[in-house]
Design brief:
The complex is a heterodimer.
Chain A: E1 4-5, E2 10-14, E3 19-25, E4 30-38, E5 45-51, E6 56-59, E7 62-67, E8 72-77, E9 86-94, E10 102-103, E11 107-112
Parallel strand pairs in A: 2-11
Antiparallel strand pairs in A: 1-3, 3-8, 4-5, 4-9, 6-7, 7-8, 9-10, 9-11
Chain B: E1 4-7, E2 10-13, E3 19-25, E4 31-38, E5 42-51, E6 54-57, E7 65-70, E8 73-78, E9 87-94, E10 102-103, E11 107-111
Parallel strand pairs in B: 2-11
Antiparallel strand pairs in B: 1-3, 3-8, 4-5, 4-9, 5-6, 7-8, 9-10, 9-11
Classes of the chains: A mainly beta, B mainly beta.
Chain lengths: 113, 112
Amino acid sequence: DQQVKQNSPSLSVQEGRISILNCDYTNSMFDYFLWYKKYPAEGPTFLISISSIKDKNEDGRFTVFLNKSAKHLSLHIVPSQPGDSAVYFCAASGTQGAQKLVFGQGTRLTINP
Amino acid sequence: DADVTQTPRNRITKTGKRIMLECSQTKGHDRMYWYRQDPGLGLRLIYYSFDVKDINKGEISDGYSVSRQAQAKFSLSLESAIPNQTALYFCATSAGSVGTQYFGPGTRLTVL
């Protein structure tokens, strides 16, 4: 049972435009959400996070939106740059013990010049 | 130097062999994790450890064991490797109660 789902395996966006990556979750106990970015032959690197007490968090070109009622979050990248081409993972954790992250399947983002 | 290192980076082995993957960190974090990544499945938690005396099973611990030799070292063992353990393995660390984890570069393991 996939508790965190990224239903788009891939996304292609033109340079300079907005990239929107989506993530859905099923477990209402999740209260902390993160986005990781992964380049080939490297480990995932932390990008941005959001707590369930917020509905938006912004860091430079990256903004994460959380809709708790819909159990949905999204990552917006504006403007998209070629270096943003990577696989993006959504992850979630709850307050039950540790920071056990549950990851989505990932979305491969390609930024075209 | 990298904060989280994994050795080896690549390994090819045969069915039935015992394999150990090692992870070291210089971040001073108390919590360490082992994940595996398979195509289309994202990262799944194998084991995690909150400190040297604490070891916990994750989502997919069957066929794996771990050892936390020191705060900075966390190793993953496959006692008798099988082909469906072919995957990319990542070690991660974190500190405190905030959910940000920091990952190593990964080990690509192939079991023939």
